[in-house]
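Onboarding guide, step 5: your first structure request.
Type a short instruction followed by the sequence, for example:

Predict the 3D structure of this protein.
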Amino acid sequence: MNDKIRVGVFSPNDNRAWVRSSNLDLMLRDEALLIDALRRNSVEVIRGGDGFPREDQIAWNRQLVIQQAKRIAEARPDALILNQGSWTFPRDSVDAVDVYQSTLETLLGTASSAGSRLLLFGYKDTQVPGLVALMAIAGALKIMGRSFQISYGRIDEDPSTLEEMMGKLRFFKRRAQAAETAAAVIRRLPEQKVPSVRRRIPAHAHGDGRPKPLAEALSGQLRPP
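The system replies with structure tokens like these:
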């Protein structure tokens, strides 16, 4: 069994052009800090924005949200990280989680618990509203009944931030492995043949040799000595 952790990283952005023009460098930098820290800890990262034009690497419209969430799901990671660098509207992150889970369920052909292996991360920068976005997204997911974990901090400066995150990702990895084992057992269920067992009831007869009715015979078997 492969013990290496594999995660997807999805980073949304504000859909307003004037906001993106001012925050894109920051968003890309904060995402890179997260990904670099994970890779230094031997975590395999599937980045949703890889291969897109620079501005589109941080998803800012529904089409990009769908494309990037599907791309991550197709790699079948152990967990999904929603990375919040600055203010974003909760709907994009909610949509990303929905697309991610539905894509996995289509690929696996069954319901998946992968959508509950979800980590919200925010880089701690008091000059931008990234943590505010994090709380807004957490509230939206909670209202929808989604389970998730939260981590935040200066992941490039504070070792405790990274260690806390790694602890949660290791937990998600164990859950993913358990889910794989359970799925394998369920797939094998049709192959298992359960022999039918028929209990023979001793024949009981009346004095003239006529068999007793079944209910009467059973009552005799069940009567305490």
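Each response can be followed by summary notes, for example: The mean pLDDT is 86.
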